[in-house]
Amino acid sequence: MPVRVPKVKQRAPVTLKHNTRTMIRQVITGLLFAFLWASAAVATKYGIHSADPLILANVRFLLAGGGMLLYFYLIQRGNNALPKGKEWLQLGIFGCLNTTIYLSCFVISMKTVSAGIGSLSTATSPLFIMMISAIWLKRQLRWYEITGMLLGLCGVALATYPLLLDSHATLGGILILMGGMLSVSIATVYYARVKWTLSNLAINGWQVFIGGLLLLPVTCLTSNFSATHFDLQFWLSVSWLIIPVSVIALQLWFYLVNKDAVRASLWLFLCPVFGFLFSWVLLHEPITWHTFAGTFLVIGGLYLAQREKFVRN
After folding, report:
1. Residues 246-280: pLDDT tens digits?
2. Taking a C-beta distance cutoff of 8 angstroms, is the pair 34, 268 a contact?
3. How far apart are CA 31 and CA 252, in angstroms?
């Protein structure tokens, strides 16, 4: 008797449907991340209309860091240990570079630099990280990495030039902003070199909170408290910077990185686009051909400098 072979159900359409859903989910997640991350500069601009920049920064750091630590140690279940020994020093160094210096420079620069340029500057961080990593590891930069860096810096200069002429940016503000980008890039390389035993939530909570504590004496000594108004605009700005930017956007970023770290970095290219759009619509900052050309150069420079990663992937 002939043997009956059971029919195997075709599962390709199911797999295709699943892959399509996954792709759509990642696209929506990436767009939402870039949208929220780029909004930080505009939210900061609104906040400093009501408060001294360092006061705005300090309130954000202490509330955001304290909130994350409160959740981690009191609400989240599990054996959540406190930092020990040299971990306090590591958290202090990371918090000083990543929060105290970088975000303080960013907030201060927003007094004299347009929100669009603030968003554009964040996209240059991978270029600084690449340069610092090469120096740290004593690795010679490749030609396309050097070219990508130069294109990125030229792009920032091109986009900034007309804003300098129209008083939408100052040279001092740009230098402070770039100093902050250098600090956060050093912080990123330092973070990658440390063998952390704490969870990501604990590290972020402690570094933000410690960064706020380190900034507190400077804020108390230099800030103009008489010109600060803790009004609705101030608290809306702080709330937006803490919840959509520091909490939601970062969680979306971690999701994208876990799925595909290389493709996740592509969403950073959209941040300047959203940033200039926000600054134009909400703050009425000008957009010229310099803006488009400069943004194109920065995105092109970023891609060229990291092209080996994309080709490999």
Report:
1. 888 877 877 776 676 556 666 777 788 888 888 88
2. yes
3. 10
